[in-house]
Write a structure and sequence with these properties.
This protein is of the alpha+beta class. It is built from 5 helices and 4 strands; from the N terminus they run H-H-E-H-E-H-E-E-H. It has a 4-stranded mixed beta sheet, with helices on both faces.
Amino acid sequence: MLLVSLVVAGVAAWWLRSRSGAVRTTGEDDVTTTTDVLRSLGVRPEDADLTVVQFATAFCAPCRATKARLTQLQTTHPGLAAVHVDAESQLEAVRALDVRRTPTLFYLDRAGTVLGRSSGAPRPDELRALVDAHAPAAPAS
């Protein structure tokens, strides 16, 4: 019985770890609601090629690292906008968007279409690929 418990716990831990920070697409039913809620927070996706909305909390270390990574990407990708939302002061939006952990990020294109979301610190390679695909880097001078 102990062995079965250990195996189940190991599989559950692996599954959670494999999903943490991974960008996943949202269901079609959620797109309009998600966009409406984000717009109510002042998000303006039409102002950038790619808008990343990060829900964060004050004492979240991965949130600070994610914010720093997004700020760094903004220096080389002028079409990238990063919006940081304090999850603790926006509980209604947190509930409406089913934000269960921080950081949670939403990725929107210029038309306001939700390209995906990630929970937990985004994987650097996936974040870079998503930004490169939707907000190309500025040409070197």
